[in-house]
């Protein structure tokens, strides 16, 4: 069995005996422990700009895995991560052309760090290894590794949306970005729409074509492109939620609700998540349907993120002020409509809060997948499940056919959907939940990992399996 080399911007180190916290750590730690290999990426530390860059990554053994960690100079971090990755690619790939900020300096930093990573990683890769590169920070990685002489199978997975060509071509170096994608043997996207956008781009820009299901020629390379939606540890998360009654935070929360209905939203602080629009929709719901005043509470959990990017600090203030304004206008002495928590909540407590909630609000303006939607469904009590209210612009909407779909830009429509969710009869709630739970149980994170690695290990000429086609249809 081939070793697995995982390359990501940040490396989520797993301490001995600890459980993976989520995301890539959950998805890939098991496969790496089974196969062996290396997890390579930025250490999270910076070194002064005038310091000498180490020639080799720092190698750490922890939790049965090998990690190769690279410290970045402050300038490199600002240009590669804070600059081009998060002030150009992130907004543009989330359809926010108005927020994209392109500079040649940041672009240079982006390619410089990818070249640095490739130079440090290449000597560690054995001829039979599989290399799996993750996300928008590292699109040029395969091209840099191939320039260093590697002939390994190299795959790439994009965790965020892939935009349509009319948006992508706003990027001055869009041609180089797509050429970098085509240097991989397998490109994985979250949804069929992402694959469709990619195909439209290569056809419109005359740089490639589809050959058959899953097979493309792009910039003269035969590659495989598939929609493989990422999943969660469904069974484990459901078990955690079922046992969450013992969690002290969950107990305190239940006692404080005094029998009121709980509506919950959980999002990293980001403009793509539609948090302000969601709060406005909740306020509209309270205004239009005063029968629910004092009978429900909206809990919004929003951990801080990317505090080094100025736009995020401003967003944090704006969202907090909005929540405060709504509470000031609608609160009673014994009832606060919105509880806004600007910090991380532990996995066990979060599972219990999901299970307690009557409605899960997952209403991003644009999202690659949004695993909160799947976690909310997994956490529900099968006998009395809550209702998932889901943005049609989340990747999860392509799978979660039991959700109430809403347009987050339509504040009045979302307010009406909240009312419908709270009033939904038990038999309809159970039917909707069963369909979604069956889906996320069959296509969990293990399915996603297995399906991708099968594609990466297989011959580039092989078409996707019938099961995989069914999974993304």
Walk me through this protein's architecture:
- This protein folds into two domains: 4-231 and 445-460, 3-Layer(aba) Sandwich (Rossmann fold), CATH 3.40.50; 234-442, Rossmann fold (3-Layer(aba) Sandwich).
- It has 473 residues and is α/β, with parallel strands linked by helices.
- It is 44% helix and 19% strand.
- It has helices at 23-35, 74-93, 104-121, 141-147, 165-168, 174-182, 192-204, 234-242, 248-257, 275-288, 310-330, 347-356, 371-379, 411-423, 426-442, 445-457, 466-472, and strands at residues 4-10, 37-47, 58-62, 65-73, 130-134, 153-157, 186-189, 208-212, 215-218, 221-227, 261-266, 296-301, 338-341, 359-362, 387-391, 404-406.
- The longest helix is centred in the last third of the chain and has 21 residues, at 310-330.
- Mean pLDDT is 92; it is low at 460-473.
- Strand 3 (58-62) and strand 4 form a beta hairpin.
